[in-house]
Amino acid sequence: MKKILKEWFLNAPWGKVALISWGNPKGEPVLLIHGRQDSAATFIPLLELLPDKYYYVGVDMPGNGLSDPLPKGVMLTRIFPVSVVQLVVEHLKWDKFTYIGHSMGTEIGLFYNSVFPGRVKRCIYLDGGPALCRILITDFSIYFKTHYIYYYDNYESINNDDRIFSKESALKAVMKARKMTKQQAELILSRNLKKIGEDKYKLSWDKREKILAPPFGSIDYYYGLFSQNCPPTLFISANQSDGGYTEAKDLVNQLISDLSKNMTYFKVVTVDGGHDVHFTNPERLSQHILEFLDETERVKAKL
Q1: Do the strands 55-60 and 15-23 form a parallel or antiparallel pair, or are they unpaired?
Q2: DSSP for 60-95?
Q3: Which helix (H) or strand (E) holds 225?
């Protein structure tokens, strides 16, 4: 397994944000942002296939992994993580960096680049389609009922997670939900299980993340937003990925297609596998990523 260089915490206004790094601390910086209810551990199998010359920093986003959750209260939004990424970037004192995001990490990266143009040197997005579907809900009444009404009708159960698991039951739950082997589930849970007693554990995942309030914009709005100052981008989709707001899949496909056609460098690749293919079968993505990194480095050298 790729050697961990360092594990530490960043003090944020609401609590601690957990960070972990691999590779060469003097190398080009690469930020790793996971998806909803996950942790930095999701990138470990892929990192095994990527060169050590880069300096990789993974983040457990608030309410995931070893990071503290946000305070209880109003429902969480899909935009807030952008400010978390900026806190991390400022803490690391990075001027420019490569961004790798999985699922909702894709969405966060797109919004981050829109708010802080010029900071991201290049982007690698791993099966971000299902997450992007959530920002393209077109029926406002459905959006309001499934997010705000549902959240406040179930406020106590969502904000107070009293579930207790044995290690085996937690493993089985992850294996079933994410179609993983026991070994893979153990790695996923390595940063997400909190021991509270003899074979008694709680999951660190914040239940509020299941209904994050999305922005309510049109495809034209998002195209305009994401196409401005768009860095070289590799967008990898999984052909067996499911879930998300399925009614918006065609809109997401159109958005990605328009970006790939009109941006200077926006490459779209499809690989065989499910939503967690970067974790379960990283070899199906690694060559595309290596070629993208090499190609964009050559372009930079020519300039």
Answers
A1: antiparallel
A2: E-TTSTTSPPPPSSSPPBSSTHHHHHHHHHHHHT-S
A3: helix 219-227
125 token code pair:
């997005």
pLDDT of amino acid 242:
75
Question: 162-188: buried (b, 16+ CB within 10 Å) or exposed (e) per residue?
Answer: eeebeeeebbeebbeebebeeebbbbb
Q: Are 88 and 10 in contact (CB under 8 A)?
A: yes
Per-residue pLDDT tens over the stretch 61-97: 999 999 999 999 888 999 999 999 999 999 999 999 9
Question: Alpha carbon of 238 to those of 39, 137, 251: distances in Å?
Answer: 20, 22, 17
What are the φ/ψ torsions at residue 10 (nearest 5 degrees)?
-105, 130
| pLDDT band, residue 246 (cuts 50/70/90) | confident
What are 266's strand-pairing partners?
233
- For 114-129, how does the pLDDT look when each residue is reduced to its tens digit (9 = 90+)? 999 999 999 999 999 9
| Two structure tokens written together for 68 | 């503290």
Please name the helix (run of DSSP H) or strand (run of DSSP E) that holds residue 168, with its range, or none: helix 167-178
Tokens of 110: 């797109």
Those residues whose C-beta lies under 8 Å from the C-beta of residue 225, and which sit 6 or more positions away, are: 110, 111, 114, 217
